Amino acid sequence: MCEVVLGEFLKEIKKNPSSVKFAEMANILVIHCQTTDDLIQLTAMCWMREFIQLAGRVMLPYSSGILTAVLPCLAYDDRKKSIKEVANVCNQSLMKLVTPEDDEPDEPKPVLHRQTESHPDDTLAKQEGAGSGGPDGSCDSSFSSGISVFTPASTERAPVTLHLDGIVQVLNCHLSDMAIGMMTRIAVLKWLYHLYIKTPRKMFRHTDSLFPILLQTLSDESDEVVLKDLEVLAEIASSPAGQTDDPGSLDGPDLRVSHSELQVPTPSRAGLPTTPGAKGLECSPSTPTMNSYFYKFMINLLKRFSSERKLLEVRGPFIIRQLCLLLNAENIFHSMADILLQEEDLKFASTMVHALNTILLTSTELFQLRNQLKDLKTLESQNLFCCLYRSWCHNPVTTVSLCFLTQNYQHAYDLIQKFGDLEVTVDFLTEVDKLVQLIECPIFTYLRLQLLDVKNNPYLIKALYGLLMLLPQSSAFQLLSHRLQCVPNPELLQTEASLNAAPKSQKADSPSIDYAELLQHFEKVQNKHLEVRHQRSGRGDPLDRRVVL
Questions:
Q1: 523 vs 323: CA distance, rounded Å
Q2: Stronger pLDDT, 410 or 536, i.e. the higher one
Q3: Is the pTM of this model over 0.70?
Q4: Contact (Cβ atoms closer than 8 angstroms) between residue 259 and residue 248
Q5: Sign of the CA dihedral running 485, 486, 489, 490
Q6: What is the pLDDT of residue 12?
Q7: Contact 258, 343 (CB under 8 A)
Q8: Which of the listed ranges 93-107, 147-161, 377-391 does the model predict with the highest average pLDDT?
Q9: Cross-referenced SUPFAM superfamilies, in alphabetical order (predicted)?
């Protein structure tokens, strides 16, 4: 009987919606949308769907309460499929009501509404505290102080203003609750992304409070959640609304490296462009697209990888590849190399450099960046190479692979000569083994073809023989040995043109790179690693596996 009466009542509302005070009834629906009785919840949710569609933006001031009721329902299983479907419609309809007009203008007026801001989102929690935060009430304690109960709407049709404080608090609470369902977490991240797209200036007021939980969400078990989380973080890092006049103000005490420290030391980097100050650190010279939050994101991401090694092993490559698609690959690698240059944990720096190098050499997402580094024809590419090189020095084998990628074969040979002074461990030989496997991959097709031009690539052949001499007689040794046996006799390949041609020097088109200084930097970094290993040995800490000769 009650269901029939409610149905007739809703029909009358649909017939004449202009005379209905939707806002005055919204509070009742929000409360009943969170009941444990399935029929009451479904009925209230159906009413909520109709109210949002009929009233439109009139419902916007009550968004936080609606989201508190709707979001948990999105994680329901098939036993409550009908409630879940109606809740999804409510969620999508409410999201569509948020438009760019809800954002602040380019020059926002002084904020004077703090004392008169008794809008519904700011007084929502007293009734929600009794039965909010989803069926299990898991968010009650978080909402009780800042989110409000619906107040009766005014009879006057005043312009609707979107207040984000309550909405963001609801979204933050649901994202922080690890017990919440995957679909709810995805919906929360979609809301955050939508708000950063439609109302970026308002949203950046809340970025500092959202940032920690967004970073924590990278450890979520679901790939879909992590991917959507990366989209939100990428939007934060690239939105023009996130640009501040004082980038240093973004760095809290939890950040290990300040903007001023991120400058790569370049006292003897002759001919390479440098941009002093924090301004030049925000982005690569060739792609000035990132805002002031970009470096904060990169620093905190590396810090998270350092504290959660499992995250780096399991999700690190996936996260970095997706960021290279969402943002700019050059900026990602340039910034991470800058930060790792200041890294105090040398073992982590070596591990991270190895991971970045593997991604650089093998990921399809980085095809353009590899091509940019392959020839070093521009000052920007030379600058990027030197920046990467200085951090890649944390790992000797990755430094050689970077030289192979950039066709710096003479410098690669010089580096391999220095390997005789390094401590050879099983891990070191394993990385040499992996490098030999990479040389046989499609990424180094051009390198293998250059073996045909023996006269102009003598250092390439010498560098490969150097790797061969480092390896024990394993499968990798046999593989590289067979490859070098295929190098033709230069006398058999000589033609009249090749006899008259002068041999090429290393990177004649990039004279601005000071390779001697880079080699000194490599020795300096490796000496630091040696000191740290000796200190760990003195403390009895576990060392890398040594080779017993």
A1: 32
A2: 410
A3: yes
A4: yes
A5: negative
A6: 62
A7: no
A8: 377-391
A9: ARM repeat
The Cα–Cα gap between 438 and 104 comes to: 52
- Using CA atoms, how far residue 544 sits from 125, 401, 420, 433, in Å, is 56, 21, 18, 17
Helices (H) and strands (E) in the chain, counts: 28, 0
CB 113 within 8 A of CB 163: no
Query: What are 124's strand-pairing partners?
Result: 148
Single out the residue of 200, 336, 363, 366 nearest to residue 262, CA to CA.
336
3-state helix, strand, coil in the chain (%, to 5): 70, 0, 30
Give the per-residue pLDDT at 373.
Answer: 94
The residue behind tokens 């954002």 is 103
Q: How far is CA 460 from the centre of its chain?
A: 36
Which residue did the predictor score with more confidence, 511 or 475? 475
| Count of Cβ atoms closer than 10 Å to residue 490 Cβ | 15
Distance CA(90)–CA(82), nearest Å, equals 13
| Spatial distance between the Cα atoms of 393 and 349, rounded to a whole number of angstroms | 10
pLDDT of residue 161: 81
Instruction: Give Cβ neighbours of residue 483 (< 8 Å, ≥ 6 apart).
Output: 439, 440, 448, 451, 464
Burial (CB < 10 A; 0-12, 13-18, 19+), residue 358, is middle
Residue 516: partners with Cβ closer than 8 Å, 6 or more residues away: none
Query: What type of residue is 230?
Result: L
Tokens found for residue 117: 């801001």
Q: Which residue has the higher pLDDT, 272 or 433?
A: 433
Using CA atoms, how far apart are residues 1 and 129, in angstroms rounded to an integer? 31
271: left (phi over 0), alpha (psi -120 to 50) or beta: left
What is the pLDDT at residue 416? 95
Among the listed residues 191, 43, 202, the one whose alpha carbon sits nearest the alpha carbon of residue 183: 191
At residue 56, what is the residue type? G
Place of tokens 């760095």: 251
Residue 11's pLDDT band (cuts 50, 70, 90): low
Q: Is 323 exposed, middle or buried (0-12, 13-18, 19+ CB in 10 A)?
A: buried
CA distance 467 to 416: 7
Contact of 302 with 339, CB cutoff 8 Å: yes
Nearest Cα to 260, choosing from 380, 336, 342, 350? 342
